[in-house]
Amino acid sequence: MPCTHSQTIQFLKRGEVVTLNNVPPTRTLLEVLREDLGLTGTKEGCGEGDCGACTVVLGEAVGESDNLTFKAVNSCIRMAHSVHGLALWTVEDLSPGNQGKATSQHPAQEAMVQCHASQCGFCTPGFVMSLFGMYQNHVLQGQPITRELAQTELSGNLCRCTGYRPILDAAQQMAGLPTVRLDHSTITRQLAKIQPQTSDSNSSYRLPNTLAELLAARTAQPKAQLVAGCTDVGLWVTKMHKQFDAVIDVTRVAELRRIEQRGGDWVIGAAATLQDAFAALLQSWPELKTFAARFAGLPVRNSGTLGGNVANGSPIGDSMPLLIALKSRIVLASLRGEREMPLEDFYTGYRQNLLAADEVVAFIKVPTATSSLLRAYKISKRYDDDISAVCLVLNLTLDDGVVSDISIGAGGVAATPVRARQTEAALRGQPWTLASVQAAMQTLRAEFEPISDMRASSSYRREVLGNLLQRFWLESQGEQHIKLEAFKLEALT
């Protein structure tokens, strides 16, 4: 049955509830801002979440308290319906004059002015919004903004004038300016007045709040497009011009947003954001810090979900090689019950998997037992905010210098994310020596048949696979100055 139910979106902006009627399910937040509301401060750059010119900040109430979370996100690939019931800030909202203050500039804006950080100006609104998110999450929490933190959290914003130095200066200067605070109590009270979206079998955009509601919606509308952050499906809309009659958004399902340790596993709900999921994994594997930051820019990690990345199953998705190397299992759920399997067994072909029409990806279980050595490598043309040409993750356990166990996940080298079982077999039981590693390098290069595309040639990918295994061995011997992370960006004095 076609979806005919007209839906209304309501969100909080400038202290008032904005109500929009009859919004199509695949209309983006950027389109609503610029075309429906006339808020043209938010810019359209790439239309795919790569440049950050469209960055806005979303606020969400936490439980029954007056606390709010603040997340900078890309509005160009964010479906408008997904912000129902949230607070939204765009660059037009930041002047304290819009918040009952006498001064004219928010610290995020004033610091940009003082540091001469705007050049052509097109990217400036996006940078300002990322700085605003940083201000809420760090400055107002009494946390210093280091050069490293500023560089990491601004990695999703690109400046075509190459003006990063003064923008990083501005990030650090915000804390020294007069403080501007939001009234959390008022905002949370206003958000509480917004009712959840009604959801029935004729709804074009369903935003269920419980797992039971989600599974019922999935059964009722098996052909509806599932979204979980929309950082990939959003590109289908903006670049491939796809339209969907029905969308089911999993990001409000309470059970799927949870992350907890249970029975020796990290149990990560499919609707947990990439940022939150990596924060949990870093508790067990702090060595993943750089890999997590390079996965994507912060606005993408704030919207995208681990479950969405896994369910999408792109052969160049970075989370799957990591999860495979960590021997993770995936839990699928439907009204019929749950079933569980190793993640690498979930994929059957290019963007194909074992998910039935009435099922959803519900949880990812990651064993918390730490290995003696874990390394995750991402090879891409740009260091930040880019898609991998090759991703390789190695999880090694040694016993008296002998490989007692090893698991290797790889991306960008086959039609699906894969486990390098032949290479694992070649190393298991062998002494962890350069000779053993060099023999395994040849096995790894021969194990897959990668394609040539715009990111890399087949021969390059094969060569890099072997080189990364050698790099892993060198790092296991204490070599540190063979990676870019060893070099620190220092502030100019």
Task: Write a brief caption for the model.
This protein is an alpha+beta fold and 493 residues long. It is globular.
Task: Report on this structure.
The protein is α+β, with helices and mostly antiparallel strands and 493 residues long. It folds into four domains: 8-93 and 184-249, Roll (Ubiquitin-like (UB roll)); 104-176, [2Fe-2S]-binding domain (DNA polymerase, domain 1), CATH 1.10.150; 255-367, Uridine Diphospho-n-acetylenolpyruvylglucosamine Reductase, domain 3 (2-Layer Sandwich), CATH 3.30.465; 374-476, 2-Layer Sandwich (Enolase-like, domain 1), CATH 3.30.390. It is 30% helix and 20% strand. The chain is built from 16 helices and 19 strands. Strands 9-10-15-11-12 form a five-stranded antiparallel beta sheet. Strands 16-17-18-19 form a four-stranded antiparallel beta sheet. A hairpin with a 6-residue loop joins strand 3 (55-61) and strand 4 (68-74). Helix 2 (107-114) crosses helix 3 (124-137), helix 14 (421-427) packs antiparallel against helix 15 and helix 15 packs antiparallel against helix 16. The protein starts with 7 loop residues before the first strand and ends in a 17-residue tail after the last helix.
